[in-house]
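User: I'm putting together a teaching handout on how sequence relates to shape, and I'd like one worked example. Could you take MICOS complex subunit from Nyctereutes procyonoides, show the sequence you're using, and then write out its predicted structure as tokens right after it?

Assistant: Happy to. First the sequence, then the structure tokens directly below it.
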Amino acid sequence: MFKVIRRSVGPASLSLLTFKVYASPKRDSPHKTSVKVIELSLYSVPKGQSKYVEEPRTQLEENISHLRHYCEPYTSWCQEMYSRTKPKMQSLVQWGLDSYEYLQNAPPGFFSKTWWSKIKKLVYPPGFMGLAASLYYPQQAIVFVQVSGEKLYDWGLRGYIVIEDLWKENFQKPGNVKNSPGNK
């Protein structure tokens, strides 16, 4: 019917470029009438009516669907907790980085070098272990911080009371005659 002639010049890597294609009738074939668009099978209307039929779900699909519906409240809770704790954790990490930078470039006389090495040996390992453990066990970390905070508060209050008692015994006002030499 028609013979296709491709006219392009260039290497094979340029084969992705667009080019013109010319069609010419074969010289020995008889001339036929052109085909109408309606006659093409691409545009023909199928006979009868077609309707969409949904395939039934398999047992695996049903089980996955039930599992997703069962887990949905837990996953939404996890997403909510993550969205709440993410800014706090980012600010905590930023605070740690800022503190580290400040302590690395501390003003002269802020702390002596011997004390700084002892502080680093005492504070860094348990601090980093606690931070790492709190990432994996957040609920237990919260309980631990609450209990240890209460205990630190109690110890601080006891220390304050002891210091207050010592202060009152040793450094009284001059008008108080309890420990004056003339009142024995």
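A couple of points you could highlight for students: The first helix runs from residue 59 to 104. The beta strands are 2-6, 21-25.
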